[in-house]
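Sharing in case it's useful to others searching the archive later.

Someone asked me privately for the predicted structure of Antitoxin, so I'm posting the question and my answer publicly. Question first, with the sequence:
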Amino acid sequence: METVNIHEAKTHLSRLVERAAQGEPFVIAKAGKALVKVMALATPEAGHMRRTGFLTGEISVPDDFDRMGADDIERLFGGGTP
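And my answer, the predicted structure tokens:
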């Protein structure tokens, strides 16, 4: 992996970032001490992105979903005396 000093990185940032985006990571160093590693982000390919609503039509939610178990909840946590 290539190591460049911070001055060189400033001077050639566009070229270095393009190389990193193509899969060639590099390290930026200051006074010989490595500071950061620059590498491409792992982004999903266009065909592999998950989309909201991908199960539309595959599952159904009961009409009384928000009332399911209401009697048990009232019994367990209701405001009445035990």
